[in-house]
Write a structure and sequence with these properties.
The protein has 185 residues and is an alpha/beta fold. It has a single domain, classed as Rossmann fold, CATH 3.40.50.360. Helices cover 32% and strands 14% of the residues. The chain has helices at 18-29, 64-68, 86-94, 122-134, 162-182; strands at residues 5-10, 35-38, 72-76, 109-115, 145-148. The protein has a five-stranded parallel beta sheet with strand order 2-1-3-4-5, sandwiched between helices. Helix 1 (18-29) links the parallel strand 1 (5-10) and strand 2. The N and C termini lie close together (9 Å). The structure holds ligand FNR. Residues 12, 14, 17-19, 78-82, 115, 117, 119, 121 line the site of ligand FNR.
Amino acid sequence: MSKPKIAVIVGSLSKQSINRKLGEGLAKLMQDQAEFEFIDIGHLPLYNRDFDNMPDFKPFEDIKPQIRGCQGVLFITPEYNRSIPSALKNVLDGLSRPYGKSVWAGIPAAVIGSSPGGAASAMAQQHLRNVLVSLDMPTMAQPEGFVRWSDTLLDADGNIGAASHDFLSKFMSKFLAWVQLNSKK
Ligand code: FNR
């Protein structure tokens, strides 16, 4: 595989999102080794299975080609009340339907996330892993990406700071190797 294309899905819709900043830092860190496409999920309606029978209303169908064009998916999730944000569950559900037309099956994935608290989004990530099993996405087991947010995680230019550089480089290198191993594209 030449340079793989990785879809990045950030669970936060906030303009100030620390998880989006983390994602942008990771994309910069690995820009020589992979191409990163951030998938916009903020405009999606709340998924309703009635959409499956509405051929003229296809907000979820419209973004399926973006996912299909990628060899891997990096999920970056905040923790909301010990789980994943509803916006993230919404895109996972919406793109898993209509039945039999899920976009997710077989695409290698990794999970990472940040929070200022000591738990560093760990419980949200565990909930997300549960969903990804159901969606049949081969998900990298280790290293786990529990990133405690601090002002020094990124430098002034948005690059991954010195303290986390080695860990996050290793995380991303292992993910790209995981994609190489598991991607069918
Ligand atoms: C949070 N936050 C939070 N943090 C945490 O570690 N565990 C939690 O259960 C929660 N719960 C929670 C619920 C809701 C509704 C909000 C808005 C926030 C704090 C959260 O980690 C913090 O706001 C992060 O900055 C959110 O990530 P983004 O949106 O900045 O990427």
